[in-house]
Amino acid sequence: MPDVYAPTTAPNPKTSWLMLPTETLEKARCGVKVIQVLLSFVAFILEEMVISCSSCSALYFFEFVSCSAFLFTLLLLILLYTSLKTRVGISCWPKLDFVYTAVIAVVFLLSSIIFTSSNGDTTLERTAVAFGFLASLMFVLDLVLFVKSAGFPFRRDVRESSNGGAAAEPETAKLNTPASATD
User: Fold this and answer.
1) How many domains are there within the chain?
2) Which of 76, 113, 161, 172 has a Cα-to-Cα distance from 88 of 20 to 30 A?
3) What is the reported pTM?
4) Where is this region: Disordered (predicted)?
């Protein structure tokens, strides 16, 4: 029996549900995002293990930020590395990723500073804060890698036409120009 179906049954890598790397997230940034998820999760777990607090509002703020950073970064990582991002309906993934990462970096750093200044100075609280600062550092590193690889996402390098799309370059060749000087 001839091998008739062999060429048509090869897997198509573009239809895979997991795409490594993608146009919005290369392998280095993926590794940084995985570290962000892990550090945020550890900071959250350590904070949850604190039994008593001297300033509970700082503890609760750190809890909210570390849990939010863990969950939303995990969600963003899943969306950026799977085919789910095509089903969500968002077309500006680089801008979303940049803004999200910048906001979480600032808020995580702020919550870590506040929790440092008003905690009970127990080993558990200091360890949670250390993981908070490490997670903040990873979010800043992600921003640096983003700008280094893709540039600033809000810069207007491409001219836009009146309908919002990229404008066509003006034609440089003149129409109706004679082909030779003798015409």
Assistant:
1) 1
2) 161
3) 0.71
4) 160-183
